[in-house]
Amino acid sequence: MTAAKKSEDKPSGKVAYFNRELSWLAFNRRVLEQAQSDDFPLLERLRFLSFVSSNLDEFYEIRVAGLMQQVDSGIHEVSADGLGPREQLRRIHSITATLVKDQYRCWNKAIIPGLKKENVFFKTTKDLSKQELDWVKEFYENQIYPVLTPLAIDPAHPFPQFTNKALYILVSLENPRSKENKHTMAVIPVPRILPRVIQIKAAPAEKPAYIFLSDILGLFANRLFPGYKVLGTWDFRITRNSDLYIDEEETENLLQEIEEELLNMRKGAAVRLEIRKGVDESLLEQLLQSIHLTQEYVFRVDGPPNLMRLMSVYDIINRPDLKFKAFIPHTPPKLSEPKALFEIISKEDILLHHPYDSFTPVVDFVQQAAHDPQVFAIKQTLYRTSGDSPIIAALSEASQNGKQVTALIELKARFDEANNIEWARKLEDVGVHVVYGLVGLKTHCKCCLVVRQEKGGLKRYVHLGTGNYNPKTAKSYTDISLFTAQKSITEEVADLFNTLTGYAHAPNFQKLLVSPFNLHKAILEKIKREIEHAKSGKPARIFAKVNSLIDREIIDLLYLASQSGVSIFLLVRGICGLVPGVPGLSDNITVRSILGRFLEHSRIYYFENAGHESELFAGSADWMPRNFFRRIEAVFPIENKELKDKFIHLWIPAFMKDTSSAKELDLNGSYINPNPEETTDKISAQAYFMRLSEEARQIYKT
User: Fold this and answer.
1) 437 pLDDT band (50/70/90 cuts)?
2) Is there a single domain that holds both residue 599 and residue 657?
3) Bridging pattern class, strands 183-189 and 151-153
4) Helix, strand or coil, per DSSP, at residue 500
5) Would 268 disulfide with which of 241, 340, 564, 677, CB 3.0-4.6 Å?
């Protein structure tokens, strides 16, 4: 954190904060509400249901695991809202238990019956026809049974080391030949290679049927234990602490250290057990003892653990009528010819709004740089990208074409560490200079710099973005891209790369806001400037769109701004520590969250700056301490008048007017419908941007 705040920078009166963890759970509740909503097609609702599970996985692996560590270590540091780790864990468990129960109720009572009406069937073993049962049995014998390894659990065979988030079957057995140890148990590890959802090929083509792998394993468990009677089977899954523990100061080879840590991750302390309801309590108690977990971290679920696996079903089921209507992004005509990209960018800045504008020009930018004989060097940051990334391929090709290529890869991109290690090795093999950033800081900025030989000498071209260089997620994440050849920007991007690959204690950025160097200080100063304008009777307004807002200094200054009369509109997709609408504290602050077809991911900041030129920024940074102080982030100004006006007068108002996908955060921490009196003519920002894109496509036939 920065130095202690001056008293004049603090709001007057009592200050309120939302708890970070409970705010995140409120966000995940909203994701579940998408699955529960009749406004979405059935298979899209199924996807949202799977997102709830994947979100909870990361929440327990990182956040809950951290709180449990605090309790175990005797640390009693309270959160911003005054809650200690034990109380936070208690509230988390209570809220999550209800959330999970509602999630499975949605699956069993809404999604499955809804799909059945559409002639798509999810079956249990009891629902199978004779023909389907025969097919399932044959499938088990040929495709499943050969790869299974049953594990007996007794004094001679203790519980195995359970892998993080792997699927297992707990089996209760009766031994007819034993009088003393009549009941025993076993575990069946389920190989990750096996699909978790099986399409039953014996079902009629017009009525496709699916069954969960765990149900099949339970049905035929007796095949693995001849001579024993199977009394019951329950599928389960253990979540472990998955944060990486790496002291970079003491690590000479970061790549090797992270690989070793990934192996150790499987052995992290257990933080959650998901198991099928109805489990034998005596067996459950033994299982909990073996993984050193207590009952409060057990979730007995009414269905298969890990509904994230439903994501595969979305891809398997070929029913376009049960999905969102296909959307084709617009490619601006002037960007449709990759060979002309550098010529166009040299004349004007280009702003793209993904996924409404195609991500293809971003890929073309790197690919064209790889092929263009006038390009001498390419520098690129990579935080997350797809496994078959054309960006990676283009960088490799560029290096093979003799260009100087530098890739700054963030090895510690959470849950993508293994992928990033693989990319790093592949790039190094073809001569790319692979750099892992600064010690103690994650490289999260999204930048690509191209150096090209032209008539007047070397010229720089830059792409700056709010999202990852991932063509796959670019279809479903909303992000901003800026192409520019402005010298004032490109020189600073070059300085940023030099800072990341070389040495620099205090780089001097004037246009870019770069953490941990000047971003936090700049945002504070811009909020203070709005406060001064409000006190002077001038128009004062702040608009910010971020994924998370929990930085205390920023929140306190926004409270002060509200008390000073600054109009503040915040779009915070997920975690929000600021409490809006508190009389005398945050009356002038509105906080909304948009959840829709696309994941809102762009970060945008607007400051009115009355009497002067208003300021508009976009970039990679949320308003969190980690983004301000523990990451390399790049926030860039949008200064071109035409582009800026488009943002201010078209895009920002669309976000603010959304009454369809947006929910408003109230002072009690609940999300409510904005403008509830306006029940008709719901406005969706995402639908509006899609319509603009489609209209542009029709006009230009792109």
Assistant:
1) low
2) yes
3) antiparallel
4) helix
5) 241
Given 330, 353, 354, 444, which residue is catalytic? 444
Q: Using 50, 70 and 90 to split pLDDT, how confident is the model at 566?
A: very high
Q: Identify the domain boundary among 464, 485, 511.
A: 511
In contact, 43 and 319? CB cutoff 8 Å: yes
The DSSP secondary-structure symbol of 6 reads P
Instruction: Report residue 249's pLDDT band, with 50, 70 and 90 as the boundaries.
Output: very low
Establish if 14 belongs to a structural domain.
no
What are the two backbone dihedrals, phi and then psi, of residue 455, each rounded to the nearest 5 degrees? -55, -40
Residues 6+ apart with CB under 8 A from 416: 383, 384
For residues 198 and 251, state if they share a domain: yes
Residue 170 has pLDDT above 90, yes or no: yes
Residues 264 and 282 in one domain: yes
Beta strands in 283-400 (DSSP E): 298-301, 350-354, 375-382
* Predicted local distance difference test score (pLDDT) of residue 196: 94
Burial class (CB in 10 A: 0-12, 13-18, 19+), 547: buried
Domain that holds residue 183: 20-322
Tally the domains of the chain: 3
**85-106 and 42-58 helices cross at what angle (nearest 10)?**
160
Report the DSSP beta bridge partners of residue 240: 270
Residues 452-463 have pLDDT tens digits of 999 889 999 999
Residues 690 and 561 in one domain: yes
Nearest to 408 by CA among 446, 367, 372: 446
pLDDT at position 492, please? 96
Predicted local confidence at residue 203, as pLDDT: 78
Transcribe 228-292 into DSSP letters.
SEEEEEEEEEEEE-------GGG-S-HHHHHHHHHHHHTTSPEEEEEEETT--HHHHHHHHHHHT
**414 and 311 within one domain:** no
> Can you point out the beta strands (E) in 573-650?
589-594, 599-600, 603-607, 615-619, 631-637
| Catalytic residue status for 520 | no
Classify residue 327: in a domain, yes or no.
Answer: no
The answer on 502 and 561 residing in a single domain is no
Assess whether 502 and 518 both reside in one domain.
Answer: no
At residue 700 the predicted structure's pLDDT band, cuts being 50, 70 and 90, is low
> The whole model's pTM is what?
0.90
> Is 7 within a domain?
no
Contacting residues for 149 by C-beta, under 8 A, at least 6 apart: 188, 189
CA 286 to chain centroid, in Å, comes to 35
